[in-house]
Amino acid sequence: MAFPADLKYTKEHEWIKIDGTTGTIGITDYAQNSLGDIVFVELPKPGSEITAGKTFGTVESVKAVSDLYAPVSGTVTEINADLANAPEKVNTDAHAAWMIKVTLKDPAEANALLDAADYEKFVQEEQ
Amino acid sequence: MGAKMVEFNGWDMPVEYPKVGGLVAEHMAVRNSVGLFDVSHMGDIRLHGPQALAAVQQMTMNDASKLQIGQAQYSALLYPQGTFVDDVIVHRLGTDDYLLVINAGTREKDYNWVRDAAKGFDCKVEDLSDNYTQIAIQGPNGWKVLQKLTDADLTQVKFYWFTHGTVCGLKNILIARTGYTAEDGFEIYVPTDEATSARVWNELLEAGKEFGIVPCGLGSRNTLRLEGALSLYGHEISDSITVWEAHLDRFIKMDKGDFTGREGLARQKEKGLDRVLVGLENVDRGIPRDGYKVFDLAGKEIGYVTSGSPAPFLKRNVALAYVPVALSAVDAEVAVEIRGTRVKCKVVPTPFYKRPKKS
Question: Per-residue pLDDT for B359 more than 60?
Fold first, then answer.
């Protein structure tokens, strides 16, 4: 299981890569492994707002629908069009299969997120 | 075995086995080769005695008098109004000897129902559910796997027939060519003590290794039966749904004589149906799932999805739903509400999947 050190994490198993005021968001390797084969990803439209801690979309496996939770607040600038036709890319490489890019409303929100070591510890305790 | 477990009607059941690749891998193994299911949660009721057939005929909708010894049929126990107590598979074990295999979720209700229905008939009713561990070996290579472990000649057992034979050294085991996957395959009924059933399970896995056998859980069990449009109690059939509505006409024999439910069904046939079960597939994108509401294109709520899911073999989504008869023709368009969004779907013929005929 991978826990890239340059990412920050939520307890709902999303990751975010922060570059100045841009955040790139996806779900973790642990998440894709728990979900099983992913068949559908539902993402917000560019221009819409996301709020930290609130849902911004869904990811579906054969068996279940899971909510995606925003790690930060901001405006969606881009969504990954690949995932519409090839949702399985999330299973193949969860940390490369980004879902949305956002302009951060409040970069300080990132301080509340887990770093790789804390997230790894959290995941081990969950298992 | 590393299974992800879930509680199902009082049983601890595996949903899927991640080590083998999970739901999709299990589903594809059954379609392409062979998969193994522990279906011990199913119930078994035996009726035997001089009037066993008469009792079975009174309490079930299909014509059990057509069964030869060694033959089975899909049938159902009905309430007087023609709705479902449960669906069953009726096996004729002997001249006056029948076995009903019933669902786990309705075991107690079914046993009480059958026991009451058999009163007044000269026959004994026995609940044998705790005597058997039922294991299903399903897929085109299923018979080859089981053949390695039994002296019964499985090539002589036709679909929906059964035999008895020695399996894994155990004598007189019921071996039925039945299943719930829309594939060829067998279900065997072995003694229920843990050591024996574990040994049989492991011997089947070993015998199946050369065919790529995988253990299969409830998740793939559901997607396999859904591709074949097989009913699930509590979804397509229930105590508030009639046989006509569930589109199971071919399993009911109204002219076999009187039976419980016949009158209610005759009345409904005369009156006409308000709703009927259909297959749905996508026009627009989105996955229709169990319980989602169905609307007509003008926006009026008209029905609901009984079962819906991505179909791993067909590689598209399939759903079964109740809709008004007026919208039940193939190609009729409806909208399924998927978490707030109305997604266009169309009626398609069922089953969605039929296994290829042997050449």
Answer: no
Chosen from B23, B28, B284 to mutate, greatest number of chain A CBs within 10 A = B23
Chain B residue numbers with beta carbons less than 8 Å from the beta carbon of A36 are 16, 18, 22-24
Phi, psi of A22 (to 5 degrees): -105, 135
Please state, in angstroms and rounded to a whole number, the distance separating the CA atoms of residues B348 and A7: 46
Average pLDDT over residues B236-242: 98
Instruction: Give the CATH number, domain containing residue B339.
Output: 2.40.30.110
Q: Select the residue of A58, A60, A62 nearest B24 (Cβ to Cβ).
A: A62
> What b/e sequence results for B109-128 when a residue is b if at least 16 CB atoms lie within 10 Å of its CB, and e otherwise?
bbbebbeebbeebebebebe
| Window B:285-304, CB contacts with A under 8 Å | 285-287, 289
Domain boundaries, position B27: 1-271
The predicted-structure confidence for B325-337, as pLDDT tens digits, reads as follows 999 999 999 999 9
Got the DSSP string for B61-129? SS-GGGPPTTBEEEEEEE-TTSBEEEEEEEEEEETTEEEEEE-GGGHHHHHHHHHHHHTTSS-EEEE-G
Q: What is the pLDDT of residues B183-207, one digit of tens each?
A: 999 999 999 898 999 999 999 999 9
Q: Report yes or no on A31 lying in a domain.
A: yes
Chain A contact for B223, CB < 8 A? yes
Q: The domain that contains B129 carries what CATH number?
A: 3.30.1360.120
Instruction: Match 């709705």 to its residue by tokens.
Output: B83
Interval B159-168: pLDDT, tens: 999 999 999 9
- DSSP lists the bridge partners of residue B8 as B11
pLDDT band at A23 (very low <50, low <70, confident <90, very high): very high
Phi and psi angles of residue B236, each rounded to the nearest 5 degrees, phi first:
-75, -30
Q: What whole-number distance in Å separates Cα of residue A10 and Cα of residue B151? A: 58
Asked if residue A4 is part of any domain, the answer here is: no
- pLDDT at residue B9 in the model: 66
Residues B104, B34: contact at Cβ < 8 Å? no
- Domain-embedded: residue B358: no
Output phi, psi for B160, to 5 deg. Answer: 65, 25
Provide DSSP, B124-141.
EEEE-GGGEEEEEEESTT
Q: Which residue has the higher pLDDT, B6 or B274?
A: B274
Both structure tokens of B168: 């894994």
3-state SS, residue B239: coil
pLDDT for B12? 75
CB contact under 8 A, B287 and A37: no
Assigned domain for B259 exists: yes
The number of domains in chain B is 2
CA B105/CA B8 separation, integer angstroms: 8
Question: Which of A33, A37, A40 is facing B287, going by the closest CB pair?
Answer: A40
Q: Quick check: is B328 in a domain?
A: yes
What ipTM was estimated for this complex?
Answer: 0.88
